[in-house]
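Co-fold these.
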Amino acid sequence: MPITVAVDANGADLGPAEVAAGAADAAQQGVRVVLFGPAEEFGEVAEGIEVVDAPVSIAKAPDPVRASRATPDASIVLVTRAVAAGDADAFVSGGSTGPALAAALFNIKRATGIHRPALAIPVPVPGHPVTIVDVGANVEVRPEHLVQFGFMGAALAQVVLGIARPRVGLLSIGEEATKGTPLVVEAHAALRDRMAEGGTFDFVGNIEGNEVTSGKADVVVTDGFTGNVALKLMEGVSEEMLRQIRDVASSSRRAKAGGLLLRPALLEFREVIDPESAGGAYLLGLRRLGVVPHGRFSRRGIAQAILLAARAVEGDVVGRTHAALEAAHALRPARLSGSPSTVASP
Amino acid sequence: MPITVAVDANGADLGPAEVAAGAADAAQQGVRVVLFGPAEEFGEVAEGIEVVDAPVSIAKAPDPVRASRATPDASIVLVTRAVAAGDADAFVSGGSTGPALAAALFNIKRATGIHRPALAIPVPVPGHPVTIVDVGANVEVRPEHLVQFGFMGAALAQVVLGIARPRVGLLSIGEEATKGTPLVVEAHAALRDRMAEGGTFDFVGNIEGNEVTSGKADVVVTDGFTGNVALKLMEGVSEEMLRQIRDVASSSRRAKAGGLLLRPALLEFREVIDPESAGGAYLLGLRRLGVVPHGRFSRRGIAQAILLAARAVEGDVVGRTHAALEAAHALRPARLSGSPSTVASP
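Predicted complex below.
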């Protein structure tokens, strides 16, 4: 039984045809794809792909929450409804984060016991990828949210990156447990206690900015504001460095000769650190998961997003997260209208 | 009349003698230095340097605030007192931020109308340095603090980097004025209004993580938590990239030959982006300013810190900041015990 991924072809910078091409690449590797979007722009459709004509796009809507509720025939709404109905196991959006987040929350809904969904990105640092969570879904959080982000990110790192026992760190401004904002200090203690109880991941304490790419932690937990700034800063600094090294390699005749010789190895390196290799941001904490590629991704990144979404389904990221949170007593207590006894549990 | 800088030789990773060597280099360029620290470790002292034997160090004190109050003979306490007494125009600490901050706040005191002092770092991005403020003095802030940080950073950029009309941006997670935490959204509006009124700097709106090194703004304003994470992340990513490019340049015989040819140009580049060239973090918002080099700096970075502290005094960063804040009606109103009329002013 192949895994089915619902894909929104709207919202990508390179257009729906590029998304369709990425979907074809993923289908060739055994994933069943249901492709939503303007069918007439897809061209000939590859085997293993089912097309649902859904030309309406809310990818650029200024108010994504309102648009996702008011536009039932928007492609991302249909995609998330297909997942909610069980017609697909996961979704991949065309690259527009806001509407994907809004439609998924509204239609797929939070998983039981989850406070807040979050966006996780596995950053391809050569030799030791690091998964940052949250990278923008929640600009303001409480300590218990950060605790759950740690569990979500760790389950993802287990399944998608194959890390048996992920080391989870908390982004802060000093090594000591007392460093950081009051929120971070409280989250530090809570993560330490809950992860000790959960037993499938290790909490390695605070991670400072310079340690994010050092391999000290496999998962770095932070609020969506700091995480978004950090992620984009990493991209910006890497790109700026590569650009500057290109400049350096044309600063003299000698340097030019060196740059020419180094070029193939540098291109290979560039490939390794290419954000497209990670597939995009994983939307975690819902009943089923989604992957949101960057808007500028090419077919390569889209195909990777679909393949990794399928891998996450296969490895049951959602179920693993729930089990680990349950074992650690870190699930959100049921509402008062439910069973009062569960409210009192930690 | 040469400018006098009081320097604390304690706290540097490489020891007091390295700080003394840096002081000698700065003195040679015309700055008068009063060097506090363990005199017996300084060796022969260069011309233009006055030594005050102050062997007691609180650089590693676990509670810097308490230590700076309880240790009147600590070198950093004596340094900041010398500045407060007018015996020196500015100070440079040996590299330990906490005690320098605590002692300076206690002894030199906030400048009139300043809510909170802040730490600013001019990051040496080739072609377009960017000054980040705050990089760690205030983990929690209010919008009016961020406004003042913008003015402080801009005055510093004018004097130390020679930027006639600095462009000030606010670190956030989207271009729109409505993006970010409620704090950031409020600070955006306040910075826009105040800078329009001040008239010496330009507010260029929100700066996303990937734009920090792009040259879009000369000054990037943020809270001390995000700023500290961002600064260290930039350092970490740059170092990781250089390390990885070194690896790339030994990955094959061809790459090795290229690396060898490129080496001199890369070393020159490394020199340009070396944090030591910026002298360290500037402590702004006090009656007189201080520079806190990184603990690991060599004599080069220490000398640079002393020279740039002198340049900041010469260019009157403190006076410029005050004048600009006053023109923008962004000074903190006087306390109720003062003149009630100033409390009502905007």
